[in-house]
Amino acid sequence: xxxxxxxxxxxxxxxxxxxxxxxxxxxxxxxxxxxxxxxxxxxxxxxxxxxxxxxxxxxxxxxxxxxxxxxxxxxxxxxxxxxxxxxxxxxxxxxxxxxxxxxxxxxxxxxxxxxxxxxxxxxxxxxxxxxxxxxxxxxxxxxxxxxxxxxxxxxxxxxxxxxxxxxxxxxxxxxxxxxxxxxxxxxxxxxxxxxxxxxxxxxxxxxxxxxxxxxxxxxxxxxxxxxxxxxxxxxxxxxxxxxxxxxxxxxxxxxxxxxxxxxxxxxxxxxxxxxxxxxxxxxxxxxxxxxxxxxxxxxxxxxxxxxxxxxxxxxxxxxxxxxxxxxxxxxxxxxxxxxxxxxxxxxxxxxxxxxxxxxxxxxxxxxxxxxxxxxxxxxxxxxxxxxxxxxxxxxxxxxxxxxxxxxxxxxxxxxxxxxxxxxxxxxxxxxxxxxxxxxxxxxxxxxxxxxxxxxxxxxxxxxxxxxxxxxxx
Length: 473
What we know:
Blueprint: H1 2-49, H2 51-63, H3 67-84, H4 94-100, H5 104-112, E1 115-119, H6 130-140, E2 145-148, E3 156-160, E4 163-167, H7 185-198, E5 203-207, H8 213-223, E6 226-231, H9 245-257, E7 260-263, H10 266-273, E8 279-281, H11 288-292, E9 305-309, H12 318-327, E10 332-336, H13 345-348, E11 353-357, H14 364-368, E12 373-376, H15 383-386, H16 391-398, E13 402-405, E14 420-421, H17 425-437, H18 445-454, H19 457-472
Helix pairs in contact: 1-7, 6-19, 7-8, 8-9, 12-17, 16-18
């Protein structure tokens, strides 16, 4: 009886949670309508107070004063009708031209594939990562892609290859740190207007950040679009992001409304499956041709280089790298990346450590070429890192580089073949020396490069495109 009671309670709990999500969605729709009415009221008030409106009122009153003024008004109306209702040659809307640009084959393919409304967690112009690679790849598969930037500073629309990057203007600066769905109502309305202006009939909305959930819910309810959630990080583990009840609510809503969840690591996949059965594992990858440019070595280099690029944040093990740099003064440690949320005070004191800051994506192969050993020194005890499938692992291998990393769960299957892994500072240093001195016993450069090519973004996108295709059937 106890087991049966537990099952009944669990079913009732799930039913209650579902009802809560549905109620929240209805509240959002009501609030959106209320917000729209308020905006219309404000606009009507602005019109009624404008000089033009008051001038028209005076003109209307004057035009009905007597026979002469009425005849004069009819003449003006007749002339205006000829001007404003004359037939004109219709030109394609500018936004249509943008979407249609590119080769004819891509346009023909796009006609038979759903549009992608890509609600990103980073701007297109930020460090080129998973969001941009997936959007770019899906456009290459024939999907018209609208990449909606998560920051709202100014209005902008740009063609990025076959992807349209769009920024909407709003008082709220960013999709991060929201406290309620009300802050998204203006953005919701603008995205809906974009859908109607573009004539989008069939689309999949891909969300990369949980607080996009109210927008996804609205687009699904109004247009019947399918929704997919790219569960690439559990942002609640980021210490620089405000943890709010609204963020947790959005996570639950995002899992509930999604027709597909794709997770970037086994850890996240296991968590997602508890919330949504329509889940697939889609790990990160590499833009192989871009990073293969770094294959080989610069012959004029005098000292071995231990290199890293990427975010240098609170999950970056600065103490481990400080220890390694102190123990290996004959090596140069080149660290590339934003240090705003990192701890680099001790590293900055060391003469053999070079903190170069953020570098453009296009320049990374030039720096990678100098690396004798590429490192991924993440704090493997953190839940955030347990959920991480490091993009740079595949990128390093694209250039045939030797990799030394901490014991990141996603890298454990590749231990001693494609990477040497250890959390102990002493062993980490020994691994670095082994790689420099040729005692590492890792697989050959050719094997590392072949593995990277098999894990390219183009291969990942084929899997994603296949899964999205199932939603259209």
